[in-house]
Amino acid sequence: MKLAREINLQRGASWSVTRRREAGVLLVECLIYLSVWSVLLGLSFAAFYRVWDNATRLRRSAADIARVLQAGERWRDGSLRPAFEDWVGAGAILSHLPGMLSPEAHAAVAAYHSARQDLASLLKRCSSGKELIQRGFEHDVALASSLDISACVPTLVQGRER
């Protein structure tokens, strides 16, 4: 009997130690999972706010790009007449704006970078430049080809430039 009792105590003791050890391992596993979950949650919040901030900047940038790309003059029937100088001018402005560019804006920036080295000559040879020179405004064409001489950009407010 004594032997059977000792065997049962040893089994019970070992079962109790094993059970405590498993509970300890389970607690450690839970703590590890909770800490990993907390880190992932923090990273996802950081990513969310970064995306939110970029989306806000992109929305502002997209509005600016849309306004710049509408540059041109209107024909008598109200249709838009985009011109070389407007396209290159839009590219010059867009090249300084932050954010991602639409394909149209990217093309305008590429046109500006391509024309920048010989801008005065190109403006004198385009249709609008020839027309202005013919009317006696050659100085205006030369002024239009000057880069980075002013920090302000005119805006259209209620149909008038400001």
Write up this protein.
This protein starts with a helix and ends with a strand. About 70% of the residues lie in helices and about 5% in strands. The chain has helices at about 1-70, 85-95, 105-115, 120-125, 125-135, 140-145, and strands at about 75, 80, 155, 160. α2 (about 85-95) crosses α3 (about 105-115). The chain has one domain. It is rod-shaped. The mean pLDDT is about 75. It is mostly helical and about 160 residues long. β1 and β2 (about 80) form a beta hairpin. It has a two-stranded antiparallel sheet. A two-stranded antiparallel ribbon has the order 3-4. It contains six helices and four strands.
Low-confidence stretches: none
User: What count of helical segments does DSSP give?
Assistant: 6
Rg over CA atoms, rounded to whole Å, is 35 Å
Beta-sheet strand percentage?
under 5%
> Which percent bin holds the helix content?
over 70%
| Tally of separate domains | 1
Query: What is the number of E strands?
Result: 4
Instruction: Note the overall shape.
Output: rod-shaped
Q: Mind describing the biggest β-sheet? A: 2 strands, antiparallel
Structural class: mainly alpha
**How confident overall, as mean pLDDT?**
76
Order of helices and strands: HEEHHHHHEE
Distance between the termini: 107 Å
Widest sheet: strand order?
A: 1-2
